[in-house]
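QA checklist item 7 of 12: single-chain prediction sanity check.
[x] sequence parsed
[x] length recorded as 73
[x] structure emitted
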Amino acid sequence: MAAQDAPHAYVLHAGTRREGDTVVSAGGRVLSVTATGADLTEARDRAYRAVARIGLDGSQHRTDIAAKAAAGA
């Protein structure tokens, strides 16, 4: 994902390795995706839109991060 594809999102990686010109998962939790926004709901939506653009075979991600706070709980 290029920076212009998600200008308010940031992807940090660990548990990765390089195979030639490609970065691949070395197993475990490998990515942290965060984003900024005018409020929590916008930041959360931007982060999850960025997650949707990431292609990592066999990957899983949580969908509940900040859900209660964004809902006003």
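[x] summary fact logged: The beta strands are 9-13, 16-19, 22-25, 31-35.
[ ] second reviewer sign-off
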